[in-house]
């Protein structure tokens, strides 16, 4: 296992790297949504997931179902708690978009941090908030001083704001800001700190999760959530959750449920019914083109489905969890899938959770 990739815990280039977005066998006329979702749940379990939960939005209908590999053990349901991983970045981007809407921030404003937290530069061009939200800042994926003291089972837990300040002094940009897409957990962590220095987690709850009714989307487990939480795994073995108070805006320690993610995706499909309408519309607007298969909104990745419709998506993971969420406003369909095992893509194949999410979205869209 690549240790740096494990610490980054996401596979955000999968759609651009050639994952087939074509549906397999289109749902027959008599095949209902539960049967279709169950087929994909079975595939996720067969791919090695101890348990899996899938949420679907299709038009006005929502459907959530789970499955588990252990005989006799209850399958997860819509209130089962998983670590969300880098899908959190879309919440952070929504918080940024809200700040833009109120005039508290500008996308073209340079990144500003408190004294003692130097912002790296390359030549004369400064990193802007838009660069952070589109992964075009030139920042590395991780701070240069994160790995040395990291516990591989909880790699961000030791990292403090003082460590971040020290790491920024040694951080060099690989490219000039705005020039190249390079996925960066550090960049989104800094975006969160720019929006609410030292209070990122409360900011995400108050500005995004609470208005959308996402009651279980938080970095801090309440007592009632502990009893509902799935246990993360690596290679079939249980592992601890990840914890982080510095780069958490990147998704290193956020929890959520399928019910919450269905609420979030429903608001993405129909922003006009959401209290965050303008912010959601802004996050989905394309701002940077990577190649013919991939564009970036704020936080969201945008790819083309067969037939020309846009699939808007993000995936993620922590040490013991893997997740993927995708939707198409043209077809009115959204899918989220969460599994309690770490997985990574190979040179020839996407992570199972990503491939299954994309294929299910395509199949539902074809049948819509």
From TrEMBL:
Q: Name one GO molecular function term.
A: hydrolase activity
Residues in domain Beta-lactamase-related?
A: 37-350
Recite the UniProt keywords alphabetically.
Hydrolase, Signal
Q: Which InterPro entries match?
A: AmpC-like, Beta-lactam-related, Beta-lactam/transpept-like, TAT_signal, TAT_signal_bac_arc
Query: Where does the signal peptide begin and end?
Result: 1-28
What is any Pfam family matched here? Beta-lactamase
NCBIfam families with a match to the protein in the record: TAT_signal_seq
Q: What name does this protein carry? A: Serine hydrolase
- Whose protein is this, by species? Streptomyces caeruleatus
Show the taxonomic lineage: Bacteria, Bacillati, Actinomycetota, Actinomycetes, Kitasatosporales
């Amino acid at each position: 296992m690549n240790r740096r990739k494990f610490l980054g815990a996401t596979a955000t280039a999968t759609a651009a790297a050639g994952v087939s977005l074509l549906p397999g066998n289109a749902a027959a006329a008599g095949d209902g949504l539960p049967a279709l979702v169950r087929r994909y749940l079975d595939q996720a379990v067969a791919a090695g997931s101890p348990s899996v939960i899938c949420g679907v939005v299709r038009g006005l209908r929502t459907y959530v179902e789970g499955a588990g590999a252990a005989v006799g053990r209850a399958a997860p349901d819509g209130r089962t708690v998983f670590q969300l991983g880098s899908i959190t970045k879309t919440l952070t981007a929504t918080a940024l978009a809200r700040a833009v809407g109120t005039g508290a921030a500008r996308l073209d404003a340079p990144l500003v941090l408190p004294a003692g937290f130097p912002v790296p530069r390359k030549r004369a061009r400064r990193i802007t908030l838009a660069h952070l939200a589109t992964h075009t800042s030139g920042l590395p994926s991780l701070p240069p001083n994160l790995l040395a003291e990291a516990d591989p089972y909880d790699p961000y837990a030791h990292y403090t704001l003082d460590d971040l300040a020290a790491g920024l002094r040694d951080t060099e940009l690989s490219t000039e800001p705005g020039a190249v897409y390079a996925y960066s957990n550090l960049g989104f962590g800094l975006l969160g700190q720019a929006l609410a220095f030292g209070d990122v987690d409360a900011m995400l709850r108050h500005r995004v999760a609470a208005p959308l009714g996402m009651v279980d989307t938080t970095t801090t487990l309440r007592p009632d959530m502990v009893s509902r939480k799935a246990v993360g795994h690596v290679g079939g073995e249980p592992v601890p959750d990840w914890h982080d108070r510095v780069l958490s805006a990147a998704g290193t320690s956020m929890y959520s449920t399928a019910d919450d993610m269905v609420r979030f995706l429903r608001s993405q499909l129909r922003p006009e019914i959401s209290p965050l309408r303008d912010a959601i519309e802004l996050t989905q607007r394309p701002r940077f083109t990577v190649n013919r298969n991939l564009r970036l909104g704020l936080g969201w990745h945008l790819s083309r489905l067969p037939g020309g419709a846009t699939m808007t998506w993000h995936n993620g993971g922590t040490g013991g969890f893997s997740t993927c969420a995708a939707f198409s406003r043209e077809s009115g369909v959204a899918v989220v899938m969460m599994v309690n095992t770490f997985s990574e893509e190979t040179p020839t194949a996407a992570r199972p959770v990503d491939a299954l999410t994309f294929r299910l979205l395509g199949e539902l869209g074809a049948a819509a």
